[in-house]
Amino acid sequence: MPECHEKDFIRKRAIFGATTNFIIDVILFVTLVFLITTGLILHVTLPPGSGRIAVLGLSRHQWGDVHFYLSMSFLAGMCLHLWLHWHWIVCMLKGNSSQAGWPTRRAIVLIITITIFLGIMLTPFLFKVDSAERGKEIERGWHGRR
User: For a Cys-Cys bond, which of 4, 106, 117, 141 suits 49, CB 3.0-4.6 Å?
Assistant: First the structure.
């Protein structure tokens, strides 16, 4: 486990720079905004069964591709962000040993957070999609209309 001293944070800040962190955070924020926008376009404007409607010249499947690549770039950026801040994360989890019970609470919060994150990430793999039901759903349209 790394020692948590302020000089370590200052040295790492000098290597990567506050400007680099700011640029990465801005790129992540812009990517997240576009990710939300494409998700809303897919969900509201181009729902399943919407036919050959196009928004800005892109069909539903093309918007799905844009959404997928934005999500992959956001995931890569978040991995980079966590890597750059890993020392700080470890030091915050270790906490100040003079505060009784504080590191234990942090560990519990970390375990709960990781469990929720993994649950969200693994949800698509836990359910089997019945292709016959999916066909009926597409045939009825997004809201179940015929």
Answer: 141
Q: How long is the chain?
A: 146
Q: What is the 3-state secondary structure (H, E, C) of 55-68?
A: ECCECHHHHHHHHH
Which residues does residue 58 pair with via DSSP β-bridges, in sequence order? 55
The pTM for the full model equals 0.63
- The amino acid occupying position 60 is R
Q: How far apart are CA 136 and CA 146, in angstroms?
A: 10
pLDDT tens per residue across span 41-90: 998 888 888 878 888 988 888 999 999 999 999 999 998 988 888 877 77
| Beta carbons within 8 Å of 41's beta carbon, 6+ residues apart | 55, 63
Instruction: Determine the Cα–Cα distance for residues 103 and 90; give it in Å rounded to an integer.
Output: 11
